[in-house]
Structure formats: C-alpha cells, structure tokens
Predict the 3D structure of the following.
Amino acid sequence: MSVQADPIGLTEVEPAKKTGKKGKRSLGILRNRKALIGLIMLAFFLVLALIGPWLAPHDPNAVTQDSLQPPSADHWLGTTNTGQDIFSQLLVGTRGVMLVGLLAGILATMISVIVGVTAGFLGGIGDELLSLLANVFLIIPALPLIIIVAALVPSAGGVTIALIIALTGWAWGSRVLRAQTLSLRKRDFVEAARANGEPMWRIIFFEIMPNLTAIIASGFIGTAIFAILSEVTLAFIGVTSISEWNWGTILFWAQSSQALVLGAWWWFVPAGLCIAAVGTSLTLINFGIDEFVNPRLRNTAASASLLRKKGIRARIGFTPVYRGGGSQHPETTRDDDRPDADTGTTPRGGARRRDAAQADDATVPGRPAASGLPTNSRTTTDTEEVTA
Amino acid sequence: MKYFLRRLGFYLFTAWAAITLNFFIPRMLPGDPVQSLINKFQGRLNTDAVESLYVLFGLDENRTVWQDYLAYLNNLFHGDLGISFTYFPTPVTQILTQSLPWTIALVGLSTIIGFVLGTLAGVGLGWRRGTWADNLLPIANFFSAIPYFWLGIIAIALFAVAWPAFPAAGGYDPGTLPGWNMEFIGGAIYHGILPALTIIISSISGWILGMRNMMVTVSSEDYVTVAQAKGLPERKVMFGYAARNAVLPSISGFALSLGFIVGGTLVAEMVFSYPGIGYMLFQAIGSKDYPLMQGAFLVVTISVLVASMLADFVYAFLDPRTRVEG
C-alpha cells in the first residue's frame, strides 16, 4: 500500500533521517533523544566512578562525633550514626557498582554470544542441548542461586561477585542471539558466502556477527542492569563483604542501624535514587537501540508529538493522513510499509513474516533486570514449531 | 499432547539440574568450608551439627561422591533437607513448610495482580500511543529500574514510620494465633498490604512497557487493519484482535521471568520481615546457616518451576498453534 508522501510533514523534523548517508547512519543512535539522555546520565556516573574517591570530601570510614546529622554544608548528605559522611560513601561506592556492572556485563555477553551464536548456527542436536542449557539457567531463580554461591565464597569482593553474576546471568542474551542467528543462517547472503567456499569462522565473524551488533549491545546493557541490581541487593542483604563500599553497603548499614525508625532519610534515600538513575539511564539506552532496530517503534516515537501538535488522534496501527480542511476525523493509512520503515540493522531477506516474528523476539526491550522487568520473547522453540 | 509432554520433560530436567547444582556447589568451592564455619560459630556448634556439615560438604572421607549423591537424592525424596543451625535442632523442611504458604500468598498474588494490571495498562497505552499516554512511559521506566527492596524501605519510611498507617514488619497480628479465623486472616491481610503494594508497583512497569511495545507492533498487522475496516467496535478490535495476540509473548515471558521476579520479591520479604521463605533465607545468610539456605533455594526453584509450567499451559490454551500435532 503506497503512502501519500509524508502527508503530515514528518520531514519537517527528521530530514536527516531521510538522507540516509552511511556516515550519518552510524550516528543514528545519538539522534534518538532517549538514548542520548541515557548516555549522558551514564557518562556522568562513569566519570564519578573514575574520580569519585578523589572527590570525596571525607574518609568514608572515618568515625566522628557528628552522629546522625541531617544534610549540612560540611556533610552534604548528612552522617551515619557513627558520624561517617554519607556523601563520601556514595562517591567512593560508585566505582564498585559500575565496575561490577561493566565486568559482569562483558563476561556474560561473551558467554551468551558464544553459546547463542553457536546454537543458532549449528542447529540440530547441538542447538537443542545448548538451548536446553540456556533455558535451565534462565528459569532457575538467579538471585537465590547467586546467594548460595556467594555465601560460600569467603569474603566475596567485587570481582568474584561479577564472575558469579556473569555465570548465572548470561542465558537471556544467548536466547535472543540464538533466535536471530537462526533467522540469519538461511539468508541469501550467508548461503552465497557458503557457496563461495568461505570458511566457517569467516561466515560467523564477518557475515553473521555484524548483523547481531545491536542485539549484542542491548543484551550487554540488560545484563549490566541485572548485574548492578544483583550486586546492590547482595550487599544489602549482607552476603558480600560489608567493608567494601558500594551503594548496597550503605543501604545495608542504614537498614541494620535502624535508620528508618530514626527517620534518617538522608541515609537511605540518595543511594536508592542513584541505583534507580543508573538503571534508568541503561534502560533508556536500550530503548534507543530498540527504536533504532525496530522501525515500528521508532516511527511511533517520532510522530507522536507531531500528531499532537496537529491535533490528530493517533489510532493504533494506522498513520493518520491529514488531507487538509474538511474532515474532522482524518482517514488512516497503514504505516509499516513506509519507505523508511525498513532501515533497521537486520538485512532484508525472503520469508518476511518469519523475520518479523523473530526480529520482534530479538528486539523488544530485553532482559528483565533483577527488579523483574518482564520479558517479551515468545519461546523460540514455539516459533520454530509454528513456522517450520 | 506432545507439547505438554515436551514441556513437562523440560521442567523435570530443570528440577533435576537445580537439585544437582545444589548438591555440587558446596563441593566445588575451595578450602575447608566446614572449618571456617566452625570458626565462625566459635565452638557453639555441637558435634551432631559438625557431623552433618561434613556430610553436607562431602568431606566425609569414607564415601565416594556418587554414594553421597545417591544418599542426598534419597534424603530429598523423603523430604529431609538437613537440620538448621539457626533454629537447631529444627529440621529445615519444617521451617520451610511453615514459611512457604506466606510466600505463595504474598508473592504469588501480588505477582499475578501486577501482571494483570500491567498488561491491561499496556494494552491501553499501546492503543492510545501518540497521545498524552506516552508521557507515562518515562515514569514506568524509572520505576522498573528501582530495586524492590529500596521501594520497600521507602514504603516503610512513608507509611509505617512517618505516617503510621500500616505495620512495618511481620505477617500477622502478634496477638492472634495462626488459624482459619477472621481475626487472624484480617490481620494477615492488613500486614500484607504494604509488601504487596511494593511488589506490585515495582513489577507492574515492566509488564506495561513490554505489553505496550507488543501492542504497537502487533497493531500494524493486517488482521487488525481488516478488523478495523470491517467496522467492528473499537473494544472488540482492541481486545479480541490486537491484545489477544500481543499478550502471547508476555505470557511466555511471564513463565521465563518468574525466576527473576521471585528473586526480587524474596528481598522485599526481607525488608518487611515477612515470615516467608525470603525472610528465612535472610536469617540463614545472617547466621551462615547453609542447610537452610540450600533448602530455601530448592523450594523456591521448585515453586518457580511449577508456576512457570502453569503459565506455559495457559499459553498453550491461548495459542492454538502450540497444540497442533507434529
């Protein structure tokens, strides 16, 4: 169904998108407002992680006479019951949180790429076994598992925790990667490469992997969120070393020193807000990636404010067509065949319907964090049965 | 039928994997955990407990790993999970059977309520995309990034300390005895409101976001256009055509992410000192009560598996394609 060329003037706001130059495309993710805000917030916390310990005005462990002081000029976020400066604890603790998030994210992504791509590429019995492994790890409650492992490791520090989290949290990414690899494997360009006699490693690294970049990135971010929430939770319940500062340790001391009953809100509010801010920044980046990859979501976001400005009520699945004057109720047109609707990173191929199902599988906001973001992918085995 | 059998096989396998992991984890770790535990308790462990520790960690010299494993499975089938240190000499099984109903009632109910409300809200938001409704998304996004336990702390600070409308801890009125009488049940509901609200609020936003995106995606399918073009009532297109298909990934997602959610809600129990498995786990961590920790892990895992299996069967009921033979 052809569309009246941009009837409501989408071109006004996104002319750059239409130019579609190679160089501009690579910056596309930055043009997404959500992703940009997320990246700026994340950069702020990363900088804090680097220089936080030098910025800290006090020694976070120093016990002083000023116990339970509310925020003041000397102690910006007040003090604990032993007179420790909470602002300094927060600054020093940032490094631990970011380090574990990053490290666990990288490790888990590596495992998930290896398992997921291999499973998707091998097919057959190897695929069955690897998928089974991933599903088992996915469904066993991760937090209790991490707890029983971490509780046994004597004085588990940041790196150990990152390792344990990575070993238990890779399954989600691998599942999504497997689904996407599976749909790529039979595409024409891969078949062509195989017919040309390209070796297996070359097909995997140069034909398939580049098409998985966005999914790998979003898997990494999802795992980082999960890792940060898990680490903070572990510190809060006292499984990990309580002498190493991170935001969870602050909350642990606040909880065990009855900060709630004492009404010392400055003790437990800032750390939680920081966790939520880092989590939000990462989710925003993930949304940016999703909208970048899934054009349907992107168009929605781009046109929403415009529609409002023009006073047109959006209806699901339809792009209102403004024919000027007359009608109060604009007619509607399908929007998924727009000329720019297929600029995702996945290559176009045959079997469009199957692609759609699998791409949705792979790109809808990903991996639930420990806080329980739901997942959106239908079980791939089911999709298989349906489409096969 | 084939579908059900396959899923059943998968869950049985996962249960076995969890049980086996539970057996091997204490054995794979370096050093002598028993000695370090004995040091931690500073001689307050009696010889029986030390004995059972050596058996638990597989340091009993006289037996092979295989014999240990068989004995462990055998004990498990007889419901024997060892003896708790914290509540010595109460068997772990007894502690867990007392706390499991609390967890199932609180976590089960609030997770399901959160899922249903979130999915409905997601349907509405997805249907009204491009309107004021989109402004709610950043808020949902922020809430989904908050850890359960912190929301719990804030809830206690606001509604139990600053404005004492609800109790800050416990699962029932201390004055009543657990039983099927109005006083006790009323007290239990009253104590459960705050933790349940916490769990619902922090889990709901994830479902909203997921369902909203699926609605946006599904609604541009041809069959929705056709339904709309036929002039069917909007409500019917929204629920009967768009939402019914968009909800499928949410339900299979529900089955898969239960493990994550339950992990988070256990921590919420810890904050509220709610007498469920999560709180037991918390106590076990505090006192390094390893048998109780492992028992809690097993019970939680098995419960999650059962719940996931139910969600899977609901999925099969909703999606006829899964029931097709072959």
